[in-house]
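Can't paste images in this forum, so I'm doing it all in text. The chain is below; anyone willing to post the predicted structure tokens underneath?
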Amino acid sequence: MNKTSGKIFIIDDDEEICQSISLLLKSAGYKIETFNSTEKFLVTENHNGAGCILLDVFLGGKTGIELQEEIETKFESLPIIFITGQGTIPLSVEAMKKGALNFLQKPIDDKELFSAIEEALNRSNALLTVQNEVEKFKSLVNSLTAREYEIFRHVISGMLNKQIAAELGIAEHTVKNHRLNITEKLKVKSVAEMVYIAEKLNIKGAIIKNNS
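Text version of the structure:
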């Protein structure tokens, strides 16, 4: 990927290691920002673009793994690559189970580091694509009126216009008009596309109450 489109955040309390990795990555064309503690990183503004985090496992205070969940909650699109000079197999397994993308041992091999970073940036871009799509769908669904949203939930449950009309106690032509508005607002042409949006936003179909 284009190195200028991503940013690498290095979190390590070993100044020498931090500077060494930073210089290496800068020489390869990456954008870098360094921190000597996870706490300092967590109070920064969220990064909206692609990127990844190089996180030392053993920092002063809480370990990187202890703060892993907190980091991933705030920086959802930034995969974590753990780095350590004291790593063990159980430790690396724990980190990977919690969602870390990679676990590198110090001294870090340059090729391994670049490979891990490229993988992380590709993952970050994929996460951003999904997040942007979800935000777009949220905006579209939020443009629906309360009645349109109600009918939308009935449509994605597989109900026909006449069934929706009977269920809601309204005329069938009224349902048709609302469905036309829904398709225009959601920028879709089919029920399948509506279902796709609903799945991405975890919107459940309406529960049918009228069985007649």
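The chain is about 50% helix and 15% strand. The first strand starts at residue 6 and ends at 11.
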